[in-house]
Design brief:
The structure is a single chain. By secondary structure, the protein is mainly alpha-helical. 65% of the residues lie in helices and 6% in strands. A hairpin with a 5-residue loop joins strand 1 and strand 2. The protein is elongated, with a radius of gyration of 26 Å. It starts with a strand and ends in an 18-residue tail after the last helix. The C terminus is likely disordered.
Length: 361
Amino acid sequence: MPQFRYLAKNMEGKNLRGTMDAAGESALQQQLKEQGLFLVQAKDVTASKSARKFSSKLLSEFCKELSTLLASGISIVRALEIVADEEGLPAYARSVYLSVLADLRKGTSLSEAMESKKCFPELMLGMIRSGEGSGNIDAVMERLSLHYERENRLKNQVKSAMAYPAVLLVMCVAVVILIVTFILPQFDELFSQMESLPAVTEWLMAASDFLVHQWYLALLAIFLLAVVVRIILKIYKIRRTIDCLKIRMPVIGRLNKIIYTARFARTLSSLYSSDCGGITDGGQDHRKCIRGGAVRAGGGHGAKRHSALPGAQGSRRSCAETRQYHIDWRGERAAGYDAGFHRNDYGGGSRGSHEAYDDPA
């Protein structure tokens, strides 16, 4: 049985670390929940090198095809056979599908077979597990296809917006390297005939000489710096502090808030509409799908300490602005969390589609 090293919080907010044997991360979360603890992060210490994660586009296509086949009355085993035999499928995806198919034929449930491959996100596994219990796995697959289609669209929009700045950054770095390594050395003989040089010029000439004759040390320093930064970023408190800075920066912070809020609303809407437990259980699952640690740490625990979800989010500036607070309040008043969060998804629908609403105060 896999062994997990976990970080959890109790009702007082105190961090607790330890190890525990569990069949999977969902089983670990349930065991900790029985002890009054809430899982923050977990790592399988017995697992080998992590498997390659599926992209949002591949997940959307997989869920859409499986949903169509299941809705047509085809069995899950036959549907997976058809999906695995599709032309143009990546080799690694085909091997995973065939492995899941082999586990299904042995009597394993679809969610357990997919969880053992370490390729599918926790949100997808939770919703499929719920669909297996309620018997509407085809509808769950359809919701998942729409969810990952929107996520893929949002990622493409961000990539398109960042393409031009990235090209400019690469060109600027290339120009600086060209000037320092090829152009400045041409003036070395001229500068050597001068009695004194400005401090900035001397610094530039020293940097140029270092990069020309000892470039390998510069590459080694960059490599070591990258390793140190990667180790530091694995520390939870430091990563949480960096995530807080991401959502408080002047311009980029607002963009990150919109992205995190859209992902929060879209994920929790999908979980709640699929009947994945209560709102606190859905909050526990959605936190694994949000990359911002400051946002991720706030949602699940706040909902447990407040009688209403808008109260929990109202205390978190990173996750709830005025518009989301009102939409959450209206959705809770109408007992329609999934509809309220779906309307708050910045990735789907326009601003004009949001109607006026009453002040909850």
